[in-house]
Amino acid sequence: MKEENQAEKKEETSEASYEDDLDKGLMIAVNREDLKMVTALLKAKADASYQDDDGRTPLMSAASLGNSDIVSELLMAGAPWNVLDKYNFACGDYAAEKGHNNTYEQLVNHACTAEMLLSHITKRPAENLDYLKQKLVFADNKILDANGDAVMMGWEGPLMRLHAALMCKGEDGKRETGDMLNVGFGLGLIDTYIQQYSPRSHTIIEAHPDVYAQMLKDGWDKKPGVTILFGRWQDVLKDLDQYDGIFFDTYGEHYEDMNDFHKSLLKILRPSGIYTFFNGLAASTNAFFHTVYCRLVEAELMNMEFTCEYVSQDIEKIFSEGKDKDIWEGVKRKYWVLNTYNLPIVKHMDILDCCGDEPAEAEEEVENDSEMKEEEHPGKESSPKKAKLSASE
Length: 393
Known about the structure:
Elements: H1 3-12, H2 22-31, H3 35-43, H4 58-65, H5 68-76, H6 91-97, H7 101-121, E1 137-139, E2 142-144, E3 150-153, H8 157-169, E4 179-183, H9 189-195, E5 201-206, H10 209-217, E6 226-230, H11 233-236, E7 243-248, H12 255-263, H13 265-268, E8 269-277, H14 287-303, E9 306-314, H15 316-320, E10 340-348, H16 349-355
Parallel strand pairs: 4-5, 4-7, 5-6, 7-8
Antiparallel strand pairs: 1-2, 2-3, 9-10
Helix pairs in contact: 2-3, 2-4, 3-5, 4-5, 4-6, 5-7, 6-7, 7-14, 8-9
């Protein structure tokens, strides 16, 4: 982040009076931790969203210093929490790097509140149906859309394995496999693992005609217990029953669409059921944004009377072990830049209350699957709990 050099550079310019340039003066005042002057400059209309040549904002500087009072003053003045500097760091990343846990939490809470308020006053995005009309490319263990963006890639396999184990056998690996629902087939990775558990029923919703055609070609309509519902989940929701395990991973939809699906969980997830989803929330940006949206989903699910906790998996080795070429070769844009995957575990609130807060550890762990470990983001009160999810070969 080059923070030390930045701080020194700002101090060198401190000979100029604050009045010469209100915005630069604000940066100087923040770096000096001069709260009185920060307040005065903001009242004088200094720009709380000012960025220097490196893209650094006053809020980033305050976060790096862990000065919660100045952070509060800047936020009240409208300083944006979701700005990135030239190194792709946000204000929360500055706090995290310096270990300022309280400041980090302060920023996460503010960001979540801002996003929830924004969702109530902004117009809902239009339905994105263009994807369903595109010709897809199936090649090299990935699916690409017409723009060359990845719909799904094979590297997700180890994660799908864990999701399937959670849905089918529970956190302790001992639950009897019941009725499973997957929304979004893609490469069929999670459905392949679900089949290994011989579920009582296995319902798959797939909306894209090319993927559906590939499913039929591969004989998925003839696999034991499988029912394929061809169409958008919004259109087939009325045909759904109740399920013991549900997984959600669609493409070409908005955050609001997933939130709408969550509202249906009260009807389709059995009282003892487990819901989970592919957690690509802001995964193409940075860790702070990802944490904000994980927390946002957690809060929104709680309002729907569900609990949501995350179990963290170090997935850096997925991108490095045994790879002779760039895993993103042939893909227009990366949709993942993080080294940690936060696997969501969602339950009806009363079920978790009955079972206790801590997820039970599995008797055995899958060979080559690394142990789930606590999330490393500082200050996260509801950070993922340590647990092992069992999976069968």
